[in-house]
Amino acid sequence: MTLKIILAVIIGTVVGLFVPESYYGVTDHMLSIGLSLLLFFVGMDIGKNKNVLKDIKKSGAMFFIVPLGVVAGSLIGAILAGFLLSDPVNESGAIGAGLGWYTLSSIIIAPYSSELSVLAFLTNVIREIIAIAAIPLVAKYIGFVEAIAPSGATAMDTTLPIVSKNTNAETAILSFSTGLILTMIVPVLVPLFLFRP
Amino acid sequence: MSSILLYLILLLAGGFLSYKGLVPKKLYHRLDVVQMICLFALLFTMGLRIGMDDAVIGAFAEIGMHATLYAVFTVAGSIIFVYMFRKGWMRMRGGKKA
């Protein structure tokens, strides 16, 4: 899947090399309409899971604590990295606010800046790769709950099987609910850093 | 700001309609396909914009190095903060019981 996603961006980039810059404005509308549709369908997909409320009850206070830790850690980590690279706080914050959801965060950022969009995309793709490698180690040496942290929003889908395999059933449920909350937060948090009222 | 509100409303509206069983069956069973179509169209568009921007193409290697630094810091930050918050919560609960 990750490979297909990267391929779609590469094909678009190659085609873009031959498209006149005068069409740049058209892509703004394409992104807005496409993103609105995508989020509507993502919401439907979340609503399909009728056990959402049961899962929330099972997770207890950790339902809030883990996503809160992931958001705080991702934002502070990104802002620190941005400080080292002399990037503005709002831009580094927006990258961190992607919370591992590389497709959506980079698409939201695209109308603001193509360069930042690429940076967010690559950051979150690399985050997923690091997560896949780090989850077993974090589960073994730090703790099961902390093993959810590297995944970010992907804790409910792509990295869930890895969390599940290296932890226990309780942590797997917590991983799903964490991913669910983070998925709801990303579309709000990323624009909050970039688009001022 | 209006885009944030729009995204949130669309996400919640989709979730509500689906949870209440108000989505047409044909669409309900093909949600993953529809999502994929939207996603790949958006990724292609994002790629188009990258290809049209000479500055981005010229700085790709540098962006890759910056992205690695961002990724390491966000992963490390997430692990550290989840650990701190969990320990803090356990200490609070322990204090209440005692």
TrEMBL record, chain A:
Entry's transmembrane regions: 5-24, 30-47, 59-81, 101-122, 129-153, 173-195
Superkingdom: Bacteria
Keywords annotated in UniProt: Membrane, Transmembrane, Transmembrane helix
InterPro entries: LysO
Protein name, UniProt field: Uncharacterized membrane protein YbjE (DUF340 family)
The species this protein was found in: Fusibacter tunisiensis
TrEMBL record, chain B:
Membrane-spanning parts: 6-22, 34-51, 63-85
Superkingdom in the source lineage: Bacteria
Keyword Membrane annotated: yes
UniProt-listed Pfam families: Lys_export
UniProt keyword terms in alphabetical order: Membrane, Transmembrane, Transmembrane helix
Full protein name: Uncharacterized membrane protein YbjE (DUF340 family)
Natural source organism: Fusibacter tunisiensis
